[in-house]
Queue: 2 jobs
Job 1
Amino acid sequence: MEKIHTADGDVLMEVSPLIDFRSKNNIQSALQIVDTPLHAKNKHGQHKDKQVELSPIHDFSAKLRQPSIINTLKEYVRWQVKWRDAYIEGKSIEDILEQAPNHAPLSVNLDVTTACNYCCDHCVDMDILNTGIRYEHEQLKNSLSTLIDRGLRSVIIIGGGEPTVYPGFADIVKHLKARDIQIGVVTNGSRMDRIAEIADVLTKGDWVRLSLDSGDNETFRAMHKPVSKKVTLDWICSQIPDIKKINPDFQIGYSFIVVWRDCEANDTEIIDNTGEIIEAAQRAKQYEFDYISYKPFLTRAEENNAEVVNLTQEEQSIDNILKKIRTSVNKTKQLESEKFSVIESTNLRVLENGSYKDFIDQPSTCHMQYFRQVLSPLGVFNCPVYRHVPQALLGGKHEYEGEELFKETQKNTLRLIEAFDASNECRNVTCLYNHANWLIEDLIRHPEKLDALEVSEERHDYFL
């Protein structure tokens, strides 16, 4: 086992020797071969067409091919080609780390706090809530500045707790917007006064998404268990029109995690809200939300703590549940207008049509951990699915503060790209980055395709 250290000398992680596909004898044959950026072969050797189920917001390969950032993608591919050639020559990754591109992740999920004022039974982060572990505020800002200087484009403030209860929430948002960073915020809606405080600095392309998951007050209170009795679904929604008046340029979304009968998390059965899909859309439109988004319930896998879709029911039961969900979501489409949209997550689409099995067919290497990461008071992690999971740890909570720490954390990222076997670790994850990973893997195996790589439309969307 190889020990990887932080800049301070502490052991960060231990990794096994490079995964099997690096074998000099097998490097040309062990990888699953991708024929074109739009087609791939699965493990059975069958071609799979471009994953048309991808929502535009989840078409990460197109985002990486935008004119403004495609060169970052190409530089990473060329470095990976160089590294694989070097390995065949008998070199180690340590020999060529200094030749790696000097880029920060393009996008990060920023967990500003572990504190939360709800007691949701279905919370996937329950084990880390209200631990008292926190950032040093100025060090966090310094870390973000370092990342911005190295190419960071977007920040999603989310997860690990409720971001608006963090005392420095507004200061962080304003710090990022002063550097022209795209901002997304995921909030439970309990502190909309904090959203009103930062509304005037948000710009077109920014968004705030409220995790509401219900259509009436009773279900909302039962699912989320807010500490304050004044927090109801009506109370939260009633504040949206006033915030839209402050600034109509950014989008406000109503998030609805669809929970069906017998879904469990944290050894607790979660309330079935499938009967409120339509009611929630009606409410969202009434209160001037820009959209409502539907996604399936996720829980954590016991073997590796990854976030996965729960499919424990009998197949016939699941089919009936999905038909009910589909019928309701179709009816919500009738509410769409120029000012209101209904968004289905990729996870929900592929769960319905059965193609989710394509999305769990992962390449051995997850390249996307180079382009997007998670910053948390618990440390820096390689993926939103694995926030606070030890095998995904890249460094400490302030490990991007300053040039020296940035370089060390980037080296740890490249080491973990080699050590983290996504085909095993993510074998049960319906991965939204699956298509982008296969595209990048294909380019590394066939670098001659880089010159002909199609540039996508510039969407100025850098959320990954």
Job 2
Amino acid sequence: MQSLAAGARVLASVTTYLEEQLRLRVNRAKSTAAPVEERKFLGHRLLGDGTQTIAPQSLERAQDRVRAITRRNRGVSFAQVVRELNSFLTGWVTYFRFAKAKGVLTDLGSWVRRKLRCVRLKQRKRAKSIADFLHGLGVPWNQCWTTAACGKGWWRMAHTPAAQQGMSNAWFQAQGLVNPLDRYLLLQH
């Protein structure tokens, strides 16, 4: 509790100096005294050891944008969804290229691929069409029908072994999807 009071006193002192001596305006809504780990700066977060990472709020906004692009009821082609995702993910990863984000981008990439599996399965709609699609990707018939007849919903269906085998990382690469982790590693020196 004392550290909060001390932080408030320091903030008040700095604010007074900036406003009276330097004649600068201070945005009191954005200004606060807090440990560096609790604050974000331009979408980044600094850890105690000085490591720069992606702020959780930035990751949540990126996931919201991916959710908007991959809505299953948009009525656009799969290729259009991939193009929009590539445009967004390429720019987003490039912005955070100096942050330590290998684990975050690995998780984001697998989550994006699962979202796209949902989109593709939903576009096939019926069990016969889903089974034919998966079989065309090299999945055995029994696994195709187990997944196609699953009544658990698109998100769960996208995580089945048949969907993951048929729509593998190599398949997504063939569709032209940018892998966030690969893009990040490419931008590293």
